[in-house]
Amino acid sequence: MNSLSENHAMTDQRARAIRFRQLHHDSAILVLPNAWDAASARIFEAVGFPAVATTSGGVANSLGYPDGQHIPREEMLFMVRRIARTVHIPVTADIESGFGATVEAVVETVRAVIEAGAVGINLEDSVRSEEKHLLPIPDQVERIRALRALGEEMGVPLVINARTDAYLVPMEPDARFEVAVERANAYLAAGADCAFPILVTDADTIRRLVEAIPGPINVLALPGVPAVSDLERLGVKRVSMGAGPCRATMGLTRRIAEELRERGTYRAFLEGAMPSGEANGLFLQRGS
To answer: Cβ of 77: how many Cβ atoms within 10 Å?
Structure first.
């Protein structure tokens, strides 16, 4: 790629980043599907979603790894690159806890993510040793500030979705809400664009979080989570799907396999399958 093409690509990427950030402040809630490969991302784009996220679990499973940062960083980046080259809408990447124990290592991961074409990241505040535990707030704040500076340095206003695992790690249940609020507010003050208290499902807790956190909040679609229209009324600005769509596809694949193995029939994949012409048409004149 020559310098003129590189400048044009960077201008396009910057525009996508600006648009993606604005989607967190529009009057309508941002419904953000999570893709696990280029095909799923392209389908989400074709249906009309304005942006797409990757799912750490889906990407890992699709390449033969369990979730939890077991996938090698380069293989994660490969999928981010393929997705970003396949769609024209903004892509945000789930980088788990950053694929590194130091601020410098996390910065290098995100530099590579931006170079792969993404305009946003999802960053967790927990790490796993013998069991999953939360990073000290100052450590996560330092990471977020460094990543905000990196985006400015690279000319891409990176959209940072700061996930807090206060509802995920071992902790006294009564403490979770206050811990989540403290962490979300610290991350927003450090430069994050959106706070993500993962695993919150009930409407009352979601409402209280919206009231206590002066910035956009991401909710993960899980059993028991209110419908999109209800989340919007509660003041939620972003709802994501996580690995749910990928796992649903894996469930369908298992049903196909069981039907073939047990009955020797084809209904599970013949009904509802996308015609080959339509499937191929999704990728004509797309990225290479």
So the answer is: 20
pLDDT digit string (tens) for 33-60?
999 999 999 999 999 999 999 999 999 9
Q: How far apart are CA 221 and CA 239, in angstroms?
A: 7
Residue 282: exposure state from Cβ atoms within 10 A (0-12, 13-18, ≥19): middle
Residue 4 has pLDDT above 80, yes or no: no
Q: Of 287, 20, 2, which Cα lies nearest the Cα of 151?
A: 20
* SS3 call for 30: strand
Here the tokens at position 4 are 């003129």
For residue 28, give its domain range: 3-243
Q: How far apart are CA 178 and CA 261, in angstroms?
A: 51
Could you give the CA distance from residue 120 to residue 130 in angstroms, rounded to a whole number?
Answer: 30
**Phi and psi (nearest 5°) for 119?**
-120, 5
Question: How far is it, in rounded angstroms, from Cα 114 to Cα 93?
Answer: 9
Residue among 83, 70, 147 at smallest CA distance from 118: 83
Kindly report the length of the chain: 288
Q: In this structure, what CATH number is given to the domain that contains residue 36?
A: 3.20.20.60
pLDDT above 60: residue 287: no
Contacting residues for 185 by C-beta, under 8 A, at least 6 apart? 195, 212, 213, 214, 215
pTM: 0.94
**Residue 41 falls within a domain, yes or no?**
yes
Summarised one tens digit per residue, pLDDT across range 161-180 is: 999 999 999 999 999 999 99
Torsion of CA 130, 136, 139, 145, to 10 degrees: 130
Buried residues in 231-266 as b, exposed as e (16+ CB within 10 A):
bbebebbbbbbbbbbbeeeeeeeeebeeeeeeeeee
Domain count, the chain: 1
